[in-house]
């Protein structure tokens, strides 16, 4: 797997005792090789880094996709909007709250603006519960324990 396209900063020189001088060779079939390359890329690692980390019993975690990062950003923005709304409501007197919540036109407008946000948050939570949006770990602990 080629790293020419990656824009990583230069690596820190290793101490002589830590310099990697030994070479490990092993064979895999084409499907296994593709799986290793794909998983290494998802984790932001080279194939060597990935295989070394797995051999040393580390569990690299796949990086979030752009879609997942966007969803997290939207959820954070939604949380902020809800907090601002709550703060605004808490700043009102009891009489102001009564007038606000008895204004049908204003409440319908508010409901129509809040409903898509609420539905998006609900969908996000459902997706997490259904494990559709969580990136799987690179290994299955139960499989590892069976070995």
Structure write-up:
It is a single chain. The longest helix is centred in the last third of the chain and has 26 residues, at 104-129. This protein is mainly alpha-helical and 147 residues long. 59% of the residues lie in helices and 0% in strands. It has helices at residues 30-42, 47-55, 66-90, 94-101, 104-129, 141-146.
Question: What is the chain-wise order of helices and strands?
Answer: HHHHHH
Content of β-strand? under 5%
Residue share in helix: 55-70%
- Describe the sheet with the most strands: none
User: Which stretches are low in confidence, meaning pLDDT under 50 for 5 or more residues running?
Assistant: 140-147
Shape: elongated
- What structural class is derived from the secondary structure elements? mainly alpha
Number of helices: 6
Ends apart, CA distance between termini: 29 Å
Question: How large, in whole angstroms, is the Cα Rg?
Answer: 25 Å
Strand element count: 0
Average of per-residue pLDDT values = 79
């Amino acid at each position: 797997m080629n790293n020419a396209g990656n824009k990583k900063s230069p690596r820190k020189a290793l101490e002589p005792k830590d310099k990697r001088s030994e070479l490990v060779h092993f064979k895999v079939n084409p499907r296994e090789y593709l799986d290793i390359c794909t998983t290494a890329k998802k984790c932001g690692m080279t194939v060597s880094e990935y295989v070394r980390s797995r051999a040393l019993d580390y569990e690299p975690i796949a990086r979030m996709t752009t879609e997942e990062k966007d969803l997290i950003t939207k959820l954070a923005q939604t949380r902020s909007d809800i907090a601002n709304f709550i703060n605004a409501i808490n700043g009102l007197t009891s009489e102001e709250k009564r007038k606000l919540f008895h204004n049908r036109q204003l409440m319908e407008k508010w409901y129509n603006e809040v409903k898509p946000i609420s539905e998006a948050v609900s969908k996000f939570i459902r997706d997490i519960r259904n494990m559709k949006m969580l990136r799987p770990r690179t290994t299955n602990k139960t499989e590892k324990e069976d070995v």
